[in-house]
Design a protein that fits this description.
The chain is α+β, with helices and mostly antiparallel strands and 71 residues long. It contains two helices and two strands, in the order αββα. It has a two-stranded antiparallel sheet with strand order 1-2. It starts with a helix and ends in a 15-residue tail after the last helix.
Length: 71
């Protein structure tokens, strides 16, 4: 596992954060979801955060969440 973490860290070493507006959501949309066994309308809002702990340690290889975080 340490090797994977080091590999991911190496991949991200040259990552340059883009200037991002922290007052605007990353994305938002409406969709259907299931609540209490019923189909309902849902509204999804993705907020810009500091990133997950794995991304901060450069150990994550599962998603690009760090691309939308506040670095």
């Amino acid at each position: 596992m340490k090797e994977l973490s080091e590999f991911c860290k190496e991949l991200k070493k040259d990552f340059t954060p883009r200037i991002k507006d922290t007052k605007e959501p990353v994305s938002f949309w409406s969709e259907k979801d299931i609540l209490n066994k019923k189909v309902v309308d849902a509204f999804v809002i993705i907020l810009r955060t500091r990133g997950c702990s794995w991304a901060l340690k450069s150990g994550c290889s599962m998603c690009g969440y760090f691309n939308d975080s506040i670095f």
